[in-house]
Each structure stands twice: as structure tokens, then as C-alpha cells.
């Protein structure tokens, strides 16, 4: 049994998204305003399509929280799909659904349409896209907000920023999180800049080129992906373990990141670059100072050694492929007659990299909260806080 379980449900154009989170300790302050702040961050970003103008994601708390604090019982949250009113006859769960309308029969290369249709035996691929759509990530961000609240209560914070969109790259790409790790730049300052940016980029000089790249792709009926960097700061030594494959923190993080729609690559620390370097350029020498305890002057490992947090910031990079729905569609086959056609065009984003950054923050929060509760045990927030303080003390005094 894992410490925390969560389960999301809901179609993109159904009435609502739902998530149940089970295993969160009692006494954690959580408000709808806190969850809604995260939901609103996920809705932002230059390059999104018409849907974001319709939705205004807000969580309704249905259980597990009373008087602004968790009870220790399962937390259920619901997010209404405002677009439902435009789809209710077509998406109705009842026998009167107008299923013959808005059918999708020309699968989009790069989306789940064709393999999902063959797998589940649906001739109308709407039945696939409704759940394969990244609309579902709103529910994950709501669950992630609860996990994030728990982490913040023990001094762990999560940040993210966009490094590139297509070929448009933040020129300070390699530096910003290194500077923050070294204490020369404030993490919060970087996050505030990213949150204020239309492309979630913490260096304003890169914003215009990223926006221009999105405009160009849009004008050409094309789409773009990009690279995102995510960090977690304030961890004690020893979340995760080397002792078994499924306890490794890096494997849990990689799995969680790859579970996000359209994410195709994950790096931790130096990542792929470490394979090109010699050992002495890759591993972080260990030092010790009274009061500070053990520390490193570099963080090429990205905060994880042997599947465990080593107390340095956890640094992750993820690669998102371009959006599969193209307004200049690619070749495909109409499954009704197997004739070559152009792929279906559903209303679509041109680029959703800034939104995916917020989803990645939420996934990291869920993994870290899971690892935290697995290590500390406990039923009440104070127990977790005491245990984490003790972990910090133990590491300092070791
Ligand atoms: C936040 C977000 C928004 C997305 N918006 C769209 C979209 O508007 N149109 C689209 O075709 N794909 C969109 N995608 C990507 C698809 O969901 C994704 O490519 C699809 O699930 C297949 O990817 P996979 O092969 O990684 O599963 C979005 C992904 C994310 C994370
Ligand atoms: C709805 C969201 O993203 C959707 C993800 C998505 C896809 O195929 O993944 C397709 C689009 O759906 P629609 O056709 O309804 O516009 C996006 O808008 C959201 O992020 O909340």
C-alpha cells in the first residue's frame, strides 16, 4: 500500500473532472483559493487555443477538508467543465446521446486516436480523444496542490520555468537554476518572473523570440513543443531509497513526468550530458562545515544520488513534443473507408509548454509528498513536521 493514492476521472467535454486523494495526513491547511491559484497557473500561457477562454477552472471540495484543514479522510475535488453546455447532447451518458454528431474518423498522427480506437474497438475516435486529452491534467494539478501544501508545511518548495519553445531558447538556459542553487539568485524571484511571463520563462529577454516562434507556427498551421526545467528545494536527506527499484526517487520522478501527455524525455541533473563527460567532471565532491553539515559546491547530480534525495535542489528537465493536432493536417487514413485523407482538426492549442510546466510541478509535488509520507509515516501534520526537523538534525549531526 502506498502512502498516498489518487485517482482522476472525467472526459474533456463531460460535465466535470474529479479527483480523489487518499492518505493525506490530518491538520493540513488547504483552501479552495490555494488550489484555484494552481489551476489558474495551468490555464495560462501564450499559444493556447479557444478552450482556455471558455474554462475558468475552480475546485469544489466535496470531502476530506473541514474548516480549512484536512481531516485525514479521502479528499474529493471536482472541477466543472464549462464547455459541457456546448456538448451535453453529444456527450450525454444516456441512450439519447447524439453520438452520430461530431464523430472523429480520421486519426491525428501523434495523438492517441488510432491505437486507442483499435484497442478499445471504438469506430468513433471521439471516444478516445475525450480521455486522452490533456484536459485531465487540471485534475492532477488540483491533487498536486494538496501535495504541494503538505510539502510547503515542511519547508519544501517547487519551482519551474520554460527553457525553450521549439528552437527559441532562453540564452541563460544553463545558468539560472545553477545560480539559484549557489544562492546567487533567489528561487522565488525566478518563479515570480516565470509566472509573470506569457511563456513561463524566467528570463524576459527570451520571451519575445518564444512568442514569435509560436506566432510563426500558428500562422503556418503547425505546432511547437519545448523544454521545461523543474526544481524542488528544501528536501531532507533520504527521500526515496536505493533498496528497491520502485523505491528509487529518480525512477518515480521519471515515471511521473513521462505520464504527462506529450512528454517524451526526462533528465535529472546533468542528465544526457553526464554520459559525454569524465567522472571527475560529473560527480559532486562532498564537503563538511560545522553547523551546515555535509554539502556539495556543485549539483550536477540534480539532488539525487542512489535513488535518494541528498538535500541539494532536485533539478529535472523534461521535453515536450509538439501538439499533434495541426491546422495544416498530416496524411492519415479515414477508418470508415481506409482512404487516404488529411487528419481531423479539432480546436487546438499551438503550444502548451507553459501549461505543461505547471502540470510537471504538480506531478513532482505528488511524488515528493508520497516519498515524504512513506519515509516519515504519521497521521497528523505535526508528526510529519517533527520527523522532518529530526531528519535535518540527524543529517547535520551525522
Ligand atoms: C497542457 C497540455 C495541453 C495540450 N493541448 C493539446 C491540444 O490542444 N491539442 C492536441 O492535439 N494535443 C494537446 N496536447 C498534447 C496531447 O494531449 C498529447 O500529444 C497526446 O496525449 C499524445 O501524447 P502522448 O503520445 O505523449 O500520449 C496537450 C498536452 C498538454 C500537456
Ligand atoms: C482542455 C484543455 O486542453 C485541451 C487538451 C487537448 C488535448 O488533445 O490534449 C485538446 C484541446 O481540447 P479542446 O479541443 O476542447 O480545445 C485542449 O484545449 C485543458 O488543458 O484544460
From TrEMBL:
EC number annotated for this UniProt entry: 4.2.3.5
Source organism: Heliorestis acidaminivorans
Subunit-structure text: Homotetramer.
Pfam families to which the protein is assigned, alphabetical: Chorismate_synt (PF01264)
Recorded family membership: Belongs to the chorismate synthase family.
Gene Ontology MF terms in the entry: chorismate synthase activity; FMN binding
The name this protein goes by in its record: Chorismate synthase
GO cellular component labels: cytosol
Residues where NADP(+) binds: 42, 48
Catalytic reaction(s) noted: 5-O-(1-carboxyvinyl)-3-phosphoshikimate = chorismate + phosphate
Cofactor note: Reduced FMN (FMNH(2)).
Record keywords: Amino-acid biosynthesis, Aromatic amino acid biosynthesis, FAD, Flavoprotein, FMN, Lyase, NADP
InterPro entries in the record: Chorismate_synth, Chorismate_synth_AroC_sf, Chorismate_synthase_CS
Pathway connected to this protein: Metabolic intermediate biosynthesis; chorismate biosynthesis; chorismate from D-erythrose 4-phosphate and phosphoenolpyruvate: step 7/7
Residues engaged in binding FMN: 131-133, 261-262, 306, 321-325, 347
Record's function text: This reaction introduces a second double bond into the aromatic ring system.
Amino acid at each position: 500500500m502506498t502512502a498516498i493514492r489518487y485517482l482522476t476521472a472525467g472526459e474533456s467535454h463531460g460535465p466535470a473532472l474529479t479527483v480523489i486523494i487518499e492518505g493525506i495526513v490530518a491538520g493540513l491547511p488547504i483552501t479552495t483559493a490555494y488550489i484555484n491559484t494552481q489551476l489558474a497557473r495551468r490555464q495560462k500561457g501564450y499559444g493556447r487555443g479557444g478552450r482556455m477562454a471558455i474554462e475558468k477552472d475552480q475546485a469544489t471540495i466535496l470531502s476530506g477538508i473541514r474548516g480549512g484543514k484536512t481531516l485525514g479522510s479521502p479528499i474529493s475535488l471536482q472541477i466543472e467543465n464549462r464547455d459541457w453546455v456546448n456538448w451535453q447532447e453529444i456527450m450525454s451518458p444516456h441512450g439519447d446521446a447524439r453520438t452520430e454528431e461530431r464523430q472523429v474518423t480520421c486519426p491525428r498522427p501523434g495523438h492517441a486516436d488510432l491505437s486507442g480506437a483499435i484497442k478499445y474497438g471504438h469506430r468513433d475516435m471521439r471516444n478516445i480523444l475525450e480521455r486522452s486529452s490533456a484536459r485531465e491534467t487540471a485534475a492532477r494539478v488540483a491533487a498536486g496542490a494538496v501535495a504541494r501544501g503538505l510539502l510547503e508545511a515542511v519547508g519544501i518548495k517547487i519551482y519551474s520555468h520554460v527553457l525553450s519553445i521549439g528552437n527559441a531558447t532562453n540564452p541563460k538556459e544553463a545558468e539560472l537554476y545553477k545560480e539559484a542553487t549557489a544562492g546567487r539568485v533567489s528561487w522565488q524571484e525566478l518563479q515570480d518572473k516565470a509566472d509573470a511571463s506569457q511563456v513561463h520563462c524566467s528570463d524576459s529577454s527570451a520571451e519575445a523570440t518564444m512568442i514569435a516562434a509560436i506566432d510563426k507556427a500558428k500562422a503556418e498551421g503547425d505546432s511547437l513543443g519545448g523544454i521545461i526545467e523543474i526544481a524542488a528545494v528544501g528536501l531532507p536527506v533520504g527521500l526515496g531509497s536505493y533498496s528497491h527499484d520502485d523505491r528509487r526517487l529518480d525512477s518515480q520522478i521519471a515515471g511521473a513526468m513521462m505520464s504527462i501527455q506529450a512528454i517524451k524525455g526526462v533528465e535529472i541533473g546533468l542528465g544526457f550530458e553526464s554520459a559525454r563527460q569524465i567522472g571527475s567532471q560529473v560527480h559532486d565532491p562532498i564537503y563538511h562545515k560545522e553547523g551546515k553539515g555535509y554539502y556539495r559546491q556543485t549539483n550536477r547530480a540534480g539532488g539525487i544520488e542512489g535513488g535518494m534525495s541528498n538535500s541539494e535542489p532536485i533539478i529535472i528537465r523534461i521535453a515536450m513534443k509538439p501538439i499533434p493536432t495541426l491546422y495544416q493536417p498530416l496524411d492519415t487514413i479515414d477508418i470508415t473507408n481506409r482512404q487516404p485523407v488529411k487528419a481531423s482538426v479539432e480546436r487546438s492549442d499551438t503550444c502548451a509548454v507553459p501549461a505543461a510546466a505547471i502540470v510537471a510541478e504538480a506531478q513532482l509535488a505528488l511524488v515528493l509528498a508520497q516519498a515524504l509520507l512513506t519515509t516519515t509515516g504519521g497521521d497528523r501534520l505535526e508528526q510529519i513536521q517533527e520527523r522532518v526537523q529530526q531528519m535535518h538534525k540527524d543529517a547535520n549531526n551525522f
